[in-house]
């Protein structure tokens, strides 16, 4: 019997407008099952769905780089895997020098930083409702308390982003994880920042058996999550190779696929 749910956000729980639909909220509430959101997003970008679903347990940000709770308007970290400080500086410099046309940002636990506002930053603002802080990366990371959890690259040039991903992996830095999120986003985190590590923390926290867990997702960065749960449910908007790993394929995020799966595969499964 499934006792606990995990869900990715973008392309999964959130509809194309970037919100949790009333249908999904109703289905999750009616299931009476606890849920942890598992996202590449920063905590500040997860607050709207956390509040919409009235979640008060541990949540997973930065693809597993941070496990946290949010109560009384306070983010409290439970487990942290930021990028090593010098590595973050090296990566930001490499991207700025080798791929100057991409949109580049970095995230600490509580803030989103960029050196300048471009089309990618504006699009992310519209999607998440967050405002970036303008800062020089070298100055920012010179302060050791500003731990970088994620470097995010955005571009509509799919050839360029594929080349950037390949070039980053060719650097052979064993302490980083490079993952495409959709066709226009590339995210760099610590190699320890895996959705699976965050889920392992939650399973231990609540003494859950793998068979008692289910997860919803749509992307490459969800594969470690799928391997960590008893029931993997993939969205119809996922690519065919991702769909192949699921126990079930539900409707798309535009058609309230999480709600459909809960009603047909989880509570009735």
Key descriptive features of the protein:
globular, alpha/beta, Hypothetical Protein, Haloacid Dehalogenase-like Hydrolase, Chain: A, domain 2, Rossmann fold, Cof, 269 residues, Cof-like hydrolase family protein, phosphatase activity, magnesium ion binding, HAD-like_sf
Q: In total, how many domains does the architecture comprise?
A: 2
Q: List the secondary-structure elements in sequence, H or E.
A: EHHEHEEEHEEHEHEHEEHEHEHEH
Which range best describes the helical content: under 10%, 10-25%, 25-40%, 40-55%, 55-70% or over 70%?
25-40%
**Low-pLDDT regions:** none
State the name of the first-level CATH class of the largest domain: Alpha Beta
Kindly identify the CATH topology of the largest domain. Rossmann fold
Within CATH, the superfamily of the largest domain carries the name HAD superfamily/HAD-like
Organism: Lactiplantibacillus fabifermentans DSM 21115
InterPro entries: Cof, HAD-like_sf, HAD-SF_hydro_IIB, HAD_sf
Pfam family, one: Hydrolase_3
GO cellular component, one term: cytosol
């Amino acid at each position: 019997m499934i006792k606990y749910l995990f869900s990715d956000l973008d392309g999964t729980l959130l509809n194309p407008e970037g919100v949790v639909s009333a249908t999904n909220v109703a289905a999750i509430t009616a299931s009476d099952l606890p849920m942890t959101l598992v996202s590449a997003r920063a905590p500040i970008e997860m607050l709207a769905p956390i509040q919409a679903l009235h979640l008060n347990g541990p949540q997973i940000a930065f693809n597993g780089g941070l496990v946290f709770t949010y109560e009384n308007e306070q983010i409290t970290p439970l487990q942290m895997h930021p990028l090593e400080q010098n590595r973050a500086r090296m990566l930001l410099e490499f991207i700025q020098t080798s791929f100057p046309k991409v949109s580049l940002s970095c995230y600490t636990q509580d803030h989103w930083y960029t050196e300048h506002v471009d089309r990618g930053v504006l699009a992310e603002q519209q999607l998440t409702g967050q405002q970036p802080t303008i800062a020089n990366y070298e100055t920012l990371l010179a302060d050791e308390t500003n731990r970088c959890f994620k470097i995010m690259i955005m571009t509509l040039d799919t050839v360029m982003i594929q080349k950037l991903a390949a070039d980053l992996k060719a650097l052979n830095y064993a302490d980083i994880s490079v993952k495409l999120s959709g066709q226009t986003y590339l995210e760099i985190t610590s190699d320890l920042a895996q959705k699976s590590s965050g889920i392992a923390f939650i399973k231990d926290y609540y003494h859950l058996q793998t068979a008692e867990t289910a997860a919803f997702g749509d992307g490459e960065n969800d594969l470690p999550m799928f391997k960590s749960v008893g029931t993997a449910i993939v969205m119809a908007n996922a690519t065919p190779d991702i769909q192949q790993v699921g126990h079930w394929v539900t409707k798309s995020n535009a058609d309230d696929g999480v709600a459909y799966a809960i009603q047909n595969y989880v509570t009735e499964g």
